[in-house]
Amino acid sequence: MSLLSSIAKFTSSPFYSILRRKVIFFKTWMKEAFVHTFFKDNCALMAAAISFYAILSAIPLFLIFISVSGFILHSSTQAFEAVTNILLKTFPTSTLAIFNILSDLIQRKTVFGLIGLAGLTWAASRIFSVVENSMNIVWKVQKGRAYWHSKFLSLLLVPISVLIMLSSLAFTVFYTVAKDFKIPLIGIRVSEATMVSKLFAILLPLILGFFLFFLIYKIIPYRKIDTKAALIGAICASSLWEVAKFLFDVYIKHYAHFQKIYGSFGTLAVMFFWIYYSSFIVLIGAEIGSNYEETKRNM
């Protein structure tokens, strides 16, 4: 009887009531987030649309790279000779053909740059447009912002977002590649460094990702977003993104030999999947934040 009376006493306590409400809230929140992500809001389709324009933006980026390469080759004789030697070793052909290709690149560097810049501006505006529409759907926004307001915001946020994302990826890749190198003055490997440096290597990309997702959730939807909801969504999205980067690192270490079988198609497939998964993570974090806000309002 003492056990039953203890259970009865616990279930009638204020703590149990609070705990029960929290559990019901969490179950309702997660259920709504799952239903909206995969059924009501059709996030898989929206992620595909974001991925499409992200992949298209690779073409103007390549043109800009060609343009920058043209300016470097034009201004540096050593760079021109080095690239010529690399191309001759990689693609055995006549020296005259290689020289003509590089000369043509140098002559048209400005054209490549202008076309690339125009294409990148268009692709970036389309990416922002799709992301903005997706955020408005997820965060239940009834009416979007004006056309020129949207374009101005895209020109402001897209470069910042790309810079943060590339910085996070670059830092992760750099730490992975450099962890076997020795630190000159100390004489130990990066992987053998102190716990502080390891935590820094983990936390910095996580913080950068968190800041990026919070920026997307707080600013892009055309209504006032609850800060706590945006924070929760950003925490979930940045954590999922770090998991994705870890899995990608595992793939590179253990399964990259499949590239020998599939060639460049294997690399493209992995890149496309990464872009799609990243787009999907943006929407999952938004759904978690949005449904937290909605569930809190209704309960």
Report on this structure.
The protein has helices spanning 2-11, 14-40, 43-56, 58-75, 77-90, 95-107, 109-138, 147-178, 195-219, 227-254, 259-262, 264-298. The protein has one domain. The longest helix is centred in the last third of the chain and has 35 residues, at 264-298. Helix 4 (58-75) crosses helix 5 (77-90) and helix 5 crosses helix 6. The protein has 12 helices and no strands. The model has no long low-confidence stretch (mean pLDDT 73). It is mainly α and 299 residues long. The protein is elongated and about 95 Å long.
Shape: elongated
pLDDT averaged residue by residue = 73
Radius of gyration: 25 Å
Q: What portion of the residues fall into strands of 2 or more residues? A: under 5%
Give the fraction of residues assigned to helices: over 70%
Segments where pLDDT lies below 50 for 5+ residues? Answer: none
How many DSSP-defined strands?
A: 0
Tally the structural domains.
1
Whole-Å distance between the termini? Answer: 36 Å
**Order of helical and strand elements:** HHHHHHHHHHHH
Main beta sheet strand tally, sense and closure: none
Q: Tell me the number of helical segments per DSSP (H or I, 4 or more residues long).
A: 12
Class derived from helix and strand content: mainly alpha
Short description:
The chain has helices spanning 2-11, 14-40, 43-56, 58-75, 77-90, 95-107, 109-138, 147-178, 195-219, 227-254, 259-262, 264-298. With 299 residues, the protein is mainly α.
Helices and strands, with pairings:
Layout: H1 2-11, H2 14-40, H3 43-56, H4 58-75, H5 77-90, H6 95-107, H7 109-138, H8 147-178, H9 195-219, H10 227-254, H11 259-262, H12 264-298
Helix pairs in contact: 2-12, 3-7, 3-12, 4-5, 4-6, 4-7, 5-6, 7-8, 8-9, 9-10, 10-12
